Amino acid sequence: MARSANQVLRRDQTWSRLAGLIVAVFMLPRPATAAEPADLVLRGGKVVTMDPDRPLAEAVAVAGDRIVAVGTAAEIAPQIGPQTKVLDLAGKFVMPGFIEGHGHFLSLGEQKLKLDLTDATSWEEVVAAVAKAVEKSPRGRWIEGRGWHQAKWKKVPEPNVEGYPVVDALSLVSPDNPVVLTHGTGHMCLANAKAMELAGVTAATKPPAGGEILHDSKGQPTGVFRESAMGLIHRALNRAHRERSADEVHMERLKAIRLATEECLKHGVTSFQDAGSSIADVDLFNTLADRGELKVRLWIMLNEGNDALAGNLARYRMIGHGNGHLTVRGIKRMIDGALGTHGAWLLAPYDDLPSSTGLNLQPLAELRKAAELAIQHDYQLCVHAIGDRANREVLDLMEEVFRQHPQKQDLRWRIEHAQHIHPDDIPRFARLGVIASMQANHATSDGPFVVRRLGQRRAAEGAYAWRRLLDAKAVVINGTDVPVERIDPIACFYSSVTRKMADGVAFFPEQAMTREEALRSYTAAAAWTAFEEREKGTLARGKLADLVVLSGDLLTVPADEFPKVRVEMTIVGGRVIYEAPVALRKQ
Questions:
Q1: Using CB atoms within 10 A of its CB, is residue 399 exposed (0-12), middle (13-18) or buried (19+)?
Q2: Residue 436 near residue 415, CB atoms below 8 Å
Q3: Residue 382: beta bridge partners?
Q4: Distance (Å, whole) CA 69 – CA 67
Q5: CB-based contact 80:42 (threshold 8 Å)
Q6: CA dist list (Å): 470 to 22, 493, 511
């Protein structure tokens, strides 16, 4: 059985401090001394290091891509030479760069190229947005969108089935253009009549295992496809995509990477833990890393099938490639769907859909094969589990695998999301050393419908239970699951410590994190979960010089003023690669 994650975290924090001098000597490309000035010095700010040996400082000195000194202004002064770039911060807040603990990097960029329905407040708004897109699109071209969420609309659409819209209105405004609109969670899609025609979907079509097609009272498909049933529409969409030239596809992927990078840097994200990329994606990232063109550090979970992984895991495992910009050491699997689409796998039926306990998307035998591949090739297993049944099944499986491989220690396997956990299973995370990779803004975004789905008791006992997990000594990390939510760590920090929903009401506030815990979940803890604690997550001598400068102090600013805090500067590897526009800095 794996030892406690927190025991390992504390051990490695101690080792990290002891190894600091060794790292500085052997890893710095050009260590600075009093005789060799730093390349960059930040001073005159409040530096929150997340390093327990020196939590606060006034200045940081950087040489090459590494930190060479952290301390008071007087201590750092000898590092300043004639060529040193000195940034006077005028009291600004400095911290380690945010580590996005769970997101979808390419999807973040791709969403920027599609119809964004995130802010739609009604079905009518969605239809109107598609109608405008049709006006600008050639006849027959697919219209793709993402971000709608029926639980966030002001009223229930009419007509509907299970609260989800019937797509007749969508078919009327787009009779000749196939339309596919992905749910904000990514676990459901809407398809108009033309898209269903091209996909060959009729009233007689059977959904694949782990998926559902909703039907109206006459037995006709409504255009709503849940979980794996989305594949029926996506196959038709992919046929259209294959008609594009290789150059067109390549340029679109490069554009998506550029757009994703810009969004990350604008929000202070210097490292991104990508929750599911293909081998082809990694090949592209690898090429960019070789050219020095990856500006954000990527940590990748591979999401290919077991057969594809078996022949590629040894070849694709890489640590810190491209000067620390690309690591591949995770395997991503999904055992259930999303709470918002009634796809999360529950121990008991949904309160608002008593006929359903959600969906199991992958047979446990297949998940077990993935676990054995992870053990064999020294990868971390990262399993999407949202419902309490899903979390229990994954914990059971991991516990069995750990028991059968007692020689394997410090595995740092993860459950992604862990949104609804039975109270009996909460202590198991720490006991097994399983990381809870959670997203604080899911709680405040989902809060308005969670009690409807689960009922008051279940929601209070185990929904988004950060406090209970932390009190049980589990390691909890943070993220946004972008593009499901916007990639905004400050907004996520606000959700972490207030749990306030859009209407100002706190969603089970007793489960909130402290400010220090929230910062740790986005820095030191997130680095540790990726085996990167010796490289990042804290500001200390020898670490990578990945920092973010904020306009406000996250440890002291009144909670209601968190939304006003802005990223003013993002530094990756000692280079300032994002600065907020002057107008934004003055807000």
A1: middle
A2: yes
A3: 332, 414
A4: 6
A5: no
A6: 32, 16, 10
Fold of 16-97+537-587: Urease, subunit C; domain 1 (2.30.40)
The CATH number fitting domain 107-241, selected from 3.40.50.720, 1.20.1250.20, 3.10.310.70, 3.40.50.300: 3.10.310.70
Q: Which residues contact 342 (CB under 8 A, 6 or more apart)?
A: 162, 226, 350, 353, 356, 358, 453
Q: What is the mean pLDDT of residues 465-484?
A: 97
Section 102-131 average pLDDT:
95
Residue 36 has pLDDT above 90, yes or no: no
Pairing of strands 435-437, 380-385: unpaired
% pLDDT > 70, the chain: 93
For residues 346, 350, 354, 355, the Cα torsion angle rounded to the nearest 10 degrees is -50
Average of per-residue pLDDT across 483-497: 96
pTM for this predicted structure: 0.89
Distance CA 126, CA 124 (A): 5
H or E segment to which residue 103 belongs: strand 98-103
Label residues 413-450 b or e (16+ Cβ within 10 Å = b): bbbbbbbbbbeebbebbbbbbbbbbbbbbbbbbbbebb
Looking at residue 23, what is its pLDDT? 38
CA distances from 506 to 167, 444, 496 (A): 34, 8, 11
Question: Which residues make up the CATH 3.10.310.70 domain(s) of the chain?
Answer: 107-241
* Residue 361 exposure: Cα atoms within 13 Å on the Cβ side: 23
CA 396 to chain CA centroid, Å, is 24
Q: What is the pLDDT of residue 7?
A: 54
